Amino acid sequence: MAVSGLSGFVINVFLARYFSTDQFAIWALAFAILYTFSLFGDFGLGLTSAKFTAEYNATDRKKLPVLLSTCLINLFINTSVTYTLILIAAPLISHAYHEPQLSMLLVVGGVFVATKITFEVISEFFRGFQNFKLPAVTLSIFTVLEVGFYCTLFFGSIQVSLMMVVIARCGFWLFKSCSLIVLFFRYVSKEDIAIRFSFFDKKTFKTTITFSIPIIISVLSYYLYTKADILIIRAFCDNMEVARYSVAENIFLCPLMIAAAFTSVIAPKATAYFYAKDHKQLQNLYSLSITIIAIPMILFAVLFFSCSTWILSIFFPNYISSSIFLKILAPLIIIKGIGQVTVGGFLIATGKPKILARLTIIGGICNIIADLILIPPLGALGAFIATIVIHSAYILYAIVHVLRKLDLRFTFKMPDTLSLTLLTGSKKP
Is the pLDDT of residue 167 over 80? Predict the structure, then answer.
């Protein structure tokens, strides 16, 4: 996850330096829209797959062939429907934003959406089996190759277009997903788990869909905090504001990759603790998680607040004016990191996604209302102010709500050998 996120950051650095503000803004807008479709296409299947794979692997391995076969068919349906929707919506979106180039970028980028969804869901299967090495190594190898390709492309003598970059992005994601699928089938074969289309089970399909619905509602609601902002900015402001927003967002998301990657590890682990009815270990894991995440988040917050201009001068020298955004976002890094671990790592993993859906949908709607009020007069600054106020309130309330529902206490715990071995999967709980 860290490698993938950092590669996305590097690509945006190249684009911001190589292309004009208008072209960079179109790129940011296109991938904000594609990100929306990828959320819908996933439909909560990734987190659901990890949850049930971990549960069945620990309690009843005979159910795994049916579960995996059913989820893979679900994945195929999701990606097919999503790409069809992109084909239909692309010309309409392009017309609405008066950007002719946007239509073809979205059509080609649909391959990126389908392959990204596939890669992430297959990765979640591996995480359910407590195998993090294969997806991590696969992603790392192809990502390094991709970044190397962009370095050659941008520093070469040929004229680079946005379409060339999008095609390259789609191609590398296609190779990543195909490689991981092959590794996944080899892995389950070694585990003596058969996968066949004939194993499709309506009951399992209904169970996974039912569990996924509140997750996708939560994710789409959470989307209203993030990528929806850039769409509203583009509707009311010029491309410079879109570019300034995208630059600040790219830098802001870098430290949060730590929390995202950590959450992906503890989610199936927390499930194992929960179903083992070992509440003491669950509390121990939660306290340790808060400590591990809080330390780097505090360091990044200080860095953003005190060195925002310096950071921008290194990576995005054409957008130094975005430094004010990083300063006001600094405290949110701490809150968001802890909140992501609390809500994403424990609430979903312990089988309570409906709570998350209720928490996020109200906050997401409030954020959109605040955006519509603040963005027209303030531009990108209004979007970040709305995000900070609404998102901080949501996270703080969500943390309290989760602690009550799971009967946990917000405490810090210094890492010890036993806790770290349990956390990393070196020792079974």
Answer: yes
Q: 118-148: string of b/e by CB count within 10 Å (b at 16+)?
A: bbbbbbbbbbbbbbbebbbebbeebbeebbe
The dihedral sign for the CA sequence 221, 34, 346, 419: negative
Q: What angle do CA 364, 291, 254 make, to 5 degrees?
A: 50
Q: What whole-number distance in Å separates Cα of residue 75 and Cα of residue 67?
A: 12
> Do 258 and 338 contact (CB within 8 A), yes or no?
no
Tens-digit pLDDT profile for residues 68-96 = 898 899 889 889 999 999 999 999 999 98
Q: What is the DSSP string of 188-224?
A: HHHTT----GGG--HHHHHHHHHHHHHHHHHHHHHHT
Alpha-carbon dihedral sign for residues 213, 218, 221, 225: negative
CB-based contacts of 35, cutoff 8 Å, min separation 6: 223, 227
The pTM for the full model equals 0.76
Residue 358 CB-half CA count within 13 A? 9
pLDDT per position as a tens digit, 376-413: 999 999 988 988 888 888 788 878 877 877 777 887 77
**What's the confidence (pLDDT) of residue 429?**
46
Contact yes or no for 253/226 (Cβ under 8 A):
no
**382 with 374: CB under 8 angstroms?**
yes
